[in-house]
Amino acid sequence: MVGNPMAAQPGSLSVAVVDDHPVVIEGIQAWLSQEPRISVRHTGEAVEVQPGAVDVLILDLNLHGRLVVDDIGTLAAAGQRVIAFSQFTEQRVVLESLEAGACEFVAKNEGRAHLVNAVLAAAGDRPYVTPTAAGVLVGDRGASRPRLSSQERTALLWWFQSMSKASVARRMGVSVHTVDIYIRRARVKYAQVGRTAPTKADMLARAIEDGLVTPDDITGYESAAFTGN
Question: CATH assignment of 150-217?
């Protein structure tokens, strides 16, 4: 496990559960009902929750025979925190889910404690790695380099160029909250692979180490900023 679940007031964290098996939904509700900080606001068999309507969305990856990893990307791009929840634990499925933007991956056989801790951590933008995800990340040769989405990379690059988050949001066509989610999610992903980056300078150093940005990407931007570009 990495990081500590967030502290919260009773019932302050809203959760949606999407799964195509009613018995699974009932089981998750029973698990979460034992945690007073969490309130389940929506359940269903299809992804009908508007991004931002709840703090965390628990998403079954296999809905009616369709693997919905692409839906994770759409939801994450809109700023929704998503926990991938699945009986499929193959390396490809876990990595693709995390790369698409899932905050955490929880296998269905990992039990109540891991799911509850993952929800609390995701809501607090803190990392939490289950045994299944840890095993995959350790076995992945590229695990030391976090898999950032294109939105996360773009938000970081423009943020590194001394732009305010509000300016980044305008250029990306999203809200400031969504930009903040992208940056926090990138920070969580670095923590998940053991390379914490608590400050902007730390994040920049990590990004340069991984070749996500170069010094030339950062320098020389000031003049462009003054032209309004």
Answer: 1.10.10
